[in-house]
Amino acid sequence: MPKRFTIGPLGEHDDHWLAVWSALTGKSKAALATSVIGLRVKQNKDTIQELLEYSAKLRGISADQLFDAILSNPRYLEENPIPEDYDDDESSSANKQKKDLR
Hints:
Number of helices: 6
Radius of gyration: 20 Å
Largest sheet: none
Low-confidence stretches: none
Distance between the termini: 56 Å
Strand content: under 5%
Number of strands: 0
Mean pLDDT: 87
């Protein structure tokens, strides 16, 4: 079962609209907020997957390994920064192209 978490308060304007939406749909504000967050995660899943794969590549592990590491320790990325000697082929070639243009 997923854990509950707390989010900061909505602004007054958004809270009023959420309250009206809640009343019109017969759902609680919490249920609507849960639905909205779930929808946004689904909409951004491809982008999240790309970030996961890229971050895993930088750390020399698979995307599945990074996914599991983050789930077990949400601070994993902070505690395991990208190695300083990492040479990203894309950024290296982009920097080389910039130097060649000068």
